[in-house]
Every structure is written in C-alpha cells, then in structure tokens.
Amino acid sequence: xxxxxxxxxxxxxxxxxxxxxxxxxxxxxxxxxxxxxxxxxxxxxxxxxxxxxxxxxxxxxxxxxxxxxxxxxxxxxxxxxxxxxxxxxxxxxxxxxxxxxxxxxxxxxxxxxxxxxxxxxxxxxxxxxxxxxxxxxxxxxxxxxxxxxxxxxxxxxxxxxxxxxxxxxxxxxxxxxxxxxxxxxxxxxxxxxxxxxxxxxxxxxxxxxxxxxxxxxxxxxxxxxxxxxxxxxxxxxxxxxxxxxxxxxxxxxxxxxxxxxxxxxxxxxxxxxxxxxxxxxxxxxxxxxxxxxxxxxxxxxxxxxxxxxxxxxxxxxxxxxxxxxxxxxxxxxxxxxxxxxxxxxxxxxxxxxxxxxxxx
Length: 360
Known about the structure:
The protein is an alpha+beta fold. The protein has helices at 4-17, 21-32, 37-43, 50-89, 108-122, 136-139, 179-188, 227-241, 295-300, 317-325, 338-344, and strands at residues 126-127, 133-135, 159-160, 171-173, 192-201, 212-222, 249-256, 259-270, 277-278, 283-293, 309-316. The strands form two sheets. Strands 1, 5, 6, 7, 8, 9, 10 and 11 form an eight-stranded mixed β-sheet that branches. Strands 2-4-3 form a three-stranded antiparallel β-sheet. The longest helix is centred in the first third of the chain and has 40 residues, at 50-89. It is rod-shaped, with a radius of gyration of 40 Å.
C-alpha cells in the first residue's frame, strides 16, 4: 500500500495539473470519495493497535486537510482564470471613438407622406393643412353632404359638444381631409392646386380599419381642367410612388356627394403565392376615390361656376403604405411597438426625392 508521503506527492501533482472543474472533481473522488485512497486509509485506523493509531492518525488527518485545502484553492484559481478569460474576450477600449448606432426610425406613415408630398410637389401642388377638430359646416354641409347622410350619424363620426361661441353647432373630429379643400378655396381663392395629408377619425376598428388613420386629399381648380387631367395625375403618382413603369388604372363609376362625376380607382395587380405585386397580373385592387368637384362645393366656397371647374381625389396613406411595404395589419401602425418600427421604419436621413429615388 502506498505510503502517506507518496499519496501526498501524487495528489498534489494531480490537483496542480487539473485544468477544469470537472478534472478537479475526478481527483477529489479518487482521493476523498467513498472509495478514495485516503478515505480507505482512514478506515483502516480501526484495525490498528492503539500506538499505531496515535502515530498514523495525525499524519492521515493532516494529509486529508491538506488535500481538501489544495482542492479548494485550485477551484478558486480556476474560477478566477475563467473570469479573466471572459473579461479579456469582452474587453473594450473605452478611449476609442464610439461606434455609430441608428438613432430612431421614421414611421412608415411619415415616410409615405414625405414621398407623396415629393411626388405631388413636382406636379405643381402646394401643401395645405387644416384643423383636426372641424365645424359641422366645413366637414359636411360645404361638401354637399345632406343631413340624412350616414356619415353624419353618431355611429360613424366622433361629435364634440359645442362651445358657447359655436352658436349651438356641433364640432367633429374630421372624418376626411376634404374640409381643407373648402378652407383653401375660401381663404386663397382660385385657381388652386393643393394636397392635404393628415389624420382623420371614424368609429371603426378591425384589421383594415382604425378609429384614427391618415388620408391625403388632392384638389385642382382652373378654367380648363377635365377628367383626362385627373387620370394623368393619378397615373403619374402611382408610377412614381410604387416605383414601377407599368401602371394600369381602372376608373369605375361611383358616387361621392362632393364630386360629379365620381369614380373609384383600381390598380392592376397579382396575388401569386400569397404575395401582392403591383403593376402586373389580372387582378384589381381599389386604392382611391376621385371625381370632378361638385358645383355645390364650388358654390359653397365662393367659386365662379361659369369660369372654373376642377377635380379632387383622396386616398388612405396607411393603405398605400401597407401595399408598398407588405404590412399585413393596419392596427400595427398605431401600437407603438419599437420592434415593429425597427423592422418597418426608415433611417432619419432617408429623405424621399424624385431625383434620387423615393426609396434609398
């Protein structure tokens, strides 16, 4: 059987050479486990006479304590080595210049507004704005909408209690950006060419509708404008916005109180493999409404009907953003999810312009 000194030298060497906690545990079991060599020697003390136990027991106990202490010291050293290695791996020189990070994202709706403004500005349209809390007259009456029109019911429109200065007339959260037409004509006169993007409000909420959404309104009034001019403007817009050369629009007769004649406009597309592609295929998708401005609207705005006429159109900015960027659910636009915005958002320096391309 090995002597105490041989065991001491052997196990201290193994402990020193252990390079991982697993190897160190194996050494501990060989020495101090239930069947370890030092453990077996300690069990043999009961078979010795009194004098032998007095001579050998202190030596074995000292060996056991020394081995346990060596194992504990080695385990602590291995932990420190592992920590040092991790620190060296993750080390960063804080004196170096910082790495640039993308700061914020432009919302797809804001990017779409900027793109639309860039396109229509190149056609000579000016940017116009109006209040989001509108008078009943600007939102309905001046736009030739009769009192019995469904949009004037409380289940469709958000009404606001009138103030004392409103002569008892209710105000509304505007249901469309069309009131900007009236304000632009009454305040600036004609001829006029304006676009009016902005927020609008209706009582609706599902995958393709939200109580607040965005529209863009277009208005052009002059002495010789026709539906042909309207058709050219919309085709040029779709060609530039969707960034495709082949655009085919279909005008379907419709009815809007503020235009006559009125039309809904579809764009040619395909739905192959569950993917929407604009400008190809045999399917059609409605994208906007338009028409020649109704004489009653011109009359309410103080425009000379014998001299001037014009066209108007309106489209949902959220909808065309969904079509262009493949966003499946309208409600996600308004949920303030930073992960969604990082995925669909745009760099703050990505400024749309026709000369450099709308999408960089």
